[in-house]
Amino acid sequence: MDDLEKTDTEDLKTGNMDNIKEFDLDESNIEDIFGPNGLLAVGLPGYEYREAQSLMAKDVSSCYKTNSVYAVEAGTGIGKSFAYLIPALMYAFRNPDDRTVIATSTINLQKQLVEKDLPTLFRVLGKSCNTALAVGRSNYLCLNRLQNEIASFPALFDDESLLKDEEKELKRIYDFSKYTSSGLRNDYNGSLLTGAWYSVSSDPDLCRNNKCPFFTRCFYFKAKRMLSAASIIVCNHHLLFTDSKYRYENSTPYSSDSVLPAFDRLVIDEAHNIDRNASSLYTEEYSSFILRRSIGKIYAHSGKSRAESGKDAEPLSASEWNSDGLSSAPRKKNFGVMRGSLLESLVVSSGDTGLVSFSD
Predict the structure, then answer these.
(1) SS3 category, 80
(2) Which alpha helices (DSSP H) does the chain contain, by range?
(3) What DSSP element (H or E) covers 357?
(4) Neighbours of 179 (CB within 10 A)
């Protein structure tokens, strides 16, 4: 059982880091945190000292200090999350310009780390740093694509009882865009029809970047700015492997930004799922749905105006935008496309990047 499953965060006490010497990752500091009378015991009601957790935290700390690769198999109940989070935090406190990426397999663990574990440790340790959750680009709503879809349905804001299922779904996504602060699909309340989200999700091949009228409000670029400011980034295996793929294909070092920002340390949790997740990412899939979306992408890139004039379509005039910034001008409907991916060989290079992997 994890530490936080035993207590309510309302009962947490703020720790005193006076005895933690300059956040140095030595064994005495780890003992002062994980020991029977340490900060966790004081700050977490119901906390139980576990020797294996303390030993694992010391090994992770050593890995951070020596830039080494470390793999450990730890059963349920050891408290793996805290055993790698606390060394990662202490390293971040001491080295704010360096960055750690923590990759997990499941969404539930990602949310637990970002929404529960890290805030709890900030409170117990009495110190914090910038953290962020990184998800794939297609998880973000694109306001520009949304306005294009809305323009394809002029009766969208008429009597909802007269709308078709596809139109009702688009209307609900529009309503979602009005109150969401993240633009993430996971924050959308309810299920979606097949293909509905992909017609309005962020797509790098259709992105207008700073030329987009919604650039300053763009959910994806807001998230990118948060990632750039974070000392600890939590992501899933899929995004980590996508980053690895792009770095390999473009010879991009880990000291430079790619799909993920530059990072110095890597922790892989739920590592027993790596082979399955890597195989899933690097397998090319074909279906009628993907084919239709690929044709839609070709259409979106060419279009009549470009085919006839050799230029991009003219931007909408100010009178064609309503008060919400969404266009009411009719447009051809563009279908979103998911990019296929094929990686002939996966290269894992440690370089100057420390690697820590954990498995149940």
Answers:
(1) helix
(2) 27-34, 39-43, 51-66, 80-94, 107-112, 118-125, 143-151, 165-179, 219-229, 237-250, 274-281, 288-309
(3) strand 354-359
(4) 7
Local structure of 100: helix, strand or coil: strand
Q: Assess contact for 40 and 67: CB atoms under 8 A.
A: no
Strand order in the sheet with 69-73: 69-73, 354-359, 265-268, 100-104, 232-236, 131-133
Per-residue confidence in pLDDT tens, the chain, 360 aa = 455 444 444 444 544 555 555 556 666 788 889 999 899 999 998 899 999 999 999 999 999 999 999 999 888 888 999 999 999 999 999 898 899 999 999 888 998 999 999 999 999 988 899 999 999 999 999 999 999 988 887 776 766 666 777 778 888 899 999 999 999 998 998 888 767 898 899 999 899 999 999 999 999 999 999 999 999 999 999 999 999 989 999 999 999 999 999 999 999 999 888 888 888 777 777 777 777 777 776 766 555 344 444 444 444 443 444 444 444 444 333 333 323 332 222 233 333 444 555 555
Give backbone dihedrals phi and psi of 158, rounded to 5 degrees, phi first: -85, -170
What residues does 184 pair with on adjacent strands?
140
